[in-house]
User: Which sequence fits this backbone?
């Protein structure tokens, strides 16, 4: 496989003014004044994309009841379809933003997300809802990585960890608010209300984004996107997930399952080959030759296998085994993302001092303790404060440390001109893990009784094994980059 060389940044410091200080660019003062508002507006987009999954997770049991005749495996495409489209849009979003401008592509993604939310709210059938979720997922896949790239525009390289911590904390706030808010909306009104909620928030974020985000500075040589490459990427992500979900009905070794899986793997290989040779690929795969970026993204993929399936399994366990209502389950799950809100900014400020390796190893160990506690102590008799609550605190803390450390490590070697693509690669790695993890969880739970405690214990032990894999990958990350004084 051939890769194009990475562009090099110009050597040497910026020119100095006669007083020995770097010259102040035109408009720098006004840009500095608009920084808090611009960051806040982008964080609103991050919040919107992050809260969606949590709202849908809590509403999922109500959706099952409102669409009689549809089983869990079939309706799982409400979140699987979203996740697949989300993941498929990440890499094109980064490549298009580096080519056409981050602001322009971000605004397009936010517009698509808001419009698709309205379609979800009025969907008359499971098929219509799933179709709207596919479009909504594409919009969310554009928002998330570009939001990080836009936020990092306002931070120096030395402050990059702080920017990543802010991005991660915003997602954590959304995740913290999602379960309780979703449970309340579903209990008081209807699951469709969660999609109506997106529209006013999204329109406000759009209006202020247009006013505050800096204009794009892109060259005139931008090429059209590689549409055949996009089709291959969608097949590479969607077909393996489709094979996993359908294996519940078709059988694990059925020819249809094996064919879908094989075609998905061939699509992935063809996409990689095309991206390495196309003059204007969707993503510059040369970035994966950077050793720290490759190792961090591998660990991020394993993290994605765990964290999204963990939150859905928690809600289904509380409603299925402990007979919690959706509102109570949402409120009960809130401590996990709430602790992420507290830990993520702290981790962002600390990551350059401790190093990516130490923080990632700590996070993996804490997340391991969280799922092992559930596997050993969670039973049929509700024991929230002694078992579930401490597990949520450990899990939320571990996830915050891991996301911050791995996101920062994945970007540490990325040239500034490829920052949008670098962030898209990191979020894609996590989202690909989410696709496989959620699909596998749906198959496992669809084949088990609703209150099957043994099935949940097997899920948690599997997650513990994946934490061990993350630990092995984290040992290959760099130590502290520099000493701090």
Assistant:
């Amino acid at each position: 496989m051939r890769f194009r060389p990475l562009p090099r940044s110009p050597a040497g410091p910026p020119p100095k003014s006669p007083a020995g200080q770097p010259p102040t660019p035109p408009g720098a003062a006004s840009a500095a004044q608009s920084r808090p508002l611009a960051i806040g507006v982008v964080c609103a987009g991050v919040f919107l994309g992050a809260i969606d999954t949590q709202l849908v997770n809590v509403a999922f049991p109500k959706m099952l009841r409102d669409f009689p005749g549809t089983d869990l495996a079939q309706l799982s495409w409400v979140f699987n379809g979203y996740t697949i489209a989300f993941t498929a849009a990440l890499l094109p979003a980064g490549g298009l933003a580096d080519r056409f401008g981050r602001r322009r592509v971000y605004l397009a993604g936010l517009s698509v997300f808001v419009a698709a939310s309205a379609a979800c709210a009025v969907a008359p059938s499971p098929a219509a809802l799933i179709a709207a979720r596919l479009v909504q997922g594409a919009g969310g896949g554009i928002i998330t990585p570009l939001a990080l790239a836009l936020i990092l525009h306002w931070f120096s390289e030395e402050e990059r960890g702080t920017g990543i911590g802010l991005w991660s904390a915003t997602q954590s706030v959304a995740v913290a608010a999602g379960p309780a808010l979703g449970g309340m909306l579903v209990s008081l009104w209807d699951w469709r209300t969660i999609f109506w909620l997106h529209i006013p928030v999204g329109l406000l974020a759009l209006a202020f984004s247009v006013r505050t985000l800096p204009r794009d500075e892109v060259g005139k040589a931008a090429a059209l996107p590689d549409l055949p490459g996009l089709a291959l990427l969608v097949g590479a992500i969607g077909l393996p997930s489709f094979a996993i979900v359908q294996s519940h009905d078709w059988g694990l070794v059925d020819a249809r399952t094996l064919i879908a899986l094989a075609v998905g793997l061939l699509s992935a290989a063809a996409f990689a080959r095309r991206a390495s040779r196309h003059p204007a690929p969707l993503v510059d795969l040369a970035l994966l030759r950077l050793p720290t970026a490759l190792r961090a993204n591998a660990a991020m993929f394993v993290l994605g296998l765990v964290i999204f399936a963990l939150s859905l399994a928690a809600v289904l366990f509380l409603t299925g085994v402990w007979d919690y209502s959706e509102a109570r389950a949402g409120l009960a799950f809130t401590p996990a993302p709430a602790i992420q809100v507290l830990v993520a900014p702290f981790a962002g400020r600390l990551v350059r001092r401790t190093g990516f390796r130490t923080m990632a190893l700590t996070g993996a160990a804490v997340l391991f303790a969280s799922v092992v506690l559930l596997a050993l102590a969670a039973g049929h008799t509700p024991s929230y404060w002694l078992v579930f609550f401490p597990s949520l605190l450990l899990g939320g803390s571990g996830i915050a440390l891991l996301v911050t450390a791995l996101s920062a490590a994945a970007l540490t070697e990325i040239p500034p001109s490829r920052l949008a693509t670098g962030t898209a690669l990191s979020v894609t790695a996590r989202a690909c893990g989410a696709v496989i993890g959620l699909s596998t969880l749906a198959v496992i739970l669809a084949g088990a009784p609703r209150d099957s405690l043994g099935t949940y214990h097997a899920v948690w032990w599997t997650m513990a094994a994946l934490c061990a894999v993350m630990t092995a990958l984290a040992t290959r990350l760099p130590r502290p980059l520099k000493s701090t004084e």
In short: The chain has one domain: 34-215+283-474. The chain has 16 helices and no strands.
